[in-house]
Amino acid sequence: MGFFDKLKQGLAKTKNAVFGQINEVVKNFRKVDEEFLEELEEIMICADMGAATTEKILDELRDRIKTDNIKNAEDVKDVLGEILRAQVGEGEPLNLETSPSVILVIGVNGVGKTTSIGKIANNLRKDGRKVIVAAADTFRAAAIEQLAIWCDRAGVELVRQNEGSDPASVVYDAIAAANKRRADVLIIDTAGRLHNKSNLMDELAKINRIISRELPNASRETLLVLDATTGQNAVMQAKKFQETADITGLILTKLDGTAKGGAIFSIKDEINIPVKYIGVGEHIDDMQPFDAKMFIDALMKEEEKKESEEENGEDEE
Predict the structure, then answer these.
(1) What is the C-alpha to C-alpha distance for residues 50 and 3, in angstroms, rounded to an integer?
(2) CATH assignment of 101-290?
(3) DSSP string, 182-238
(4) What residues does CATH 3.40.50.300 cover in the chain?
(5) What is the largest CA-CA distance in the chain?
(6) pLDDT 10s digits, 19-37
């Protein structure tokens, strides 16, 4: 099964909850009026797109309806798809220009941070990059052990110390290993907590100082992992982490477990940080770089349309 099929399967709950209902509204309304738009608004808010983001999307939809003189409710779906794709933004590739490059991964416990690291490491290794992972979440022995399992699955090296060790010390050792082994990418796991912001900020600052001192010219990414099932709570987490870290990209996990995948639109809208990876399952290859067109197609395309397109493609060949 290709990733697009996995994405469609993973987004099934959100698709049924949101666009299944939109299809019903389109069938029930022959004309485009304010009542029709209010129905769309209710559906999008229930999908956790957020009130402000939903209002922004609908304002643009109203403008397009007026400008393009759209009268048919069926035609609104295509325009809505265009607006949503622009809203979520294009995915941006990781900045991995140097060897080694550094990826610092942050996020609260339970969002899928450790599994995301394993999946991204696997992704990069399959692309031909030599990857080393640093287990700098030293506050929980379970976190180190879990990371070791995922690194083993991904076929990448893990640098670790004992539980309770200084996270910056682990990072220092990992940088030395990355230099010695000529690694292309160093991925650093960090402690997953947000309840004590000052401690988190101090810890991240210390880690960043080590990276800046030992790898002053390295390309760097700071990726925040968010759990899609938490909806608008994920938006609040992102805003809090933004206060303590220079976040360059988002990893959105567990899209397969929620009907509230609409949160991805408000996350991008409210904090303006690109989504770089999305996860739609538990397997090691169930996370891929974010592709806006693929994401919107998986959400909005009806099966019969997709099948028709595939048949046309076969005829062309």
Answers:
(1) 28
(2) 3.40.50.300
(3) T-SEEEEE-----SSHHHHHHHHHHHHHHHHHH-TT--EEEEEEEEGGGTHHHHHHH
(4) 101-290
(5) 67
(6) 778 878 878 877 888 888 9
Question: Which whole-number Å values give the CA distances from 98 to 55, 184, 261, 274, in the listed order?
Answer: 42, 7, 34, 21
CATH superfamily of 3-90: SRP54, nucleotide-binding domain (1.20.120.140)
What tokens appear for 33 in the block?
């009026």
The backbone region for 128, taken as left when phi is positive above 0, alpha when psi lies in -120 to 50, beta otherwise, is left
Whole-number pLDDT of residue 2: 76
Residue type, 166: D
Q: Is residue 158 within 8 Å of residue 147, measured between CB atoms?
A: yes
Residue ranges, comma separated, of all CATH 1.20.120.140 domains in the chain are: 3-90
Are 79 and 64 spatial neighbours (Cβ–Cβ below 8 Å)? yes
Identify the CA nearest to 288 among candidates 94, 14, 88, 110. Answer: 94
Q: Check residue 7 and report its DSSP letter.
A: H
CA distance 76 to 300: 12
3-state secondary structure of 277: strand
pTM: 0.86
Strands 287-289 and 131-135: unpaired
42: alpha, beta or left? (left if phi > 0; alpha if psi -120 to 50): alpha
Q: How far apart are the C-alpha atoms of 21 and 259, rounded to whole Å?
A: 12
Asked if residue 103 lies in contact with residue 188, where contact means CB atoms within 8 angstroms, the answer is: yes
Whether a cis peptide bond, with omega within 30° of 0, leads into 93 is no
Cα separation, 110 vs 227, whole angstroms: 8
SS3 assignment, position 62 = helix
Instruction: Reply yes or no on whether the pLDDT at 219 is more than 90.
Output: yes
Amino acid at 174: A
Structure-token pair, residue 158: 């893990």
Sign of CA dihedral 282, 283, 288, 293: negative
- Nearest to 34, CA basis, from 57, 60, 62: 62
Q: Is the pLDDT of residue 213 over 80?
A: yes
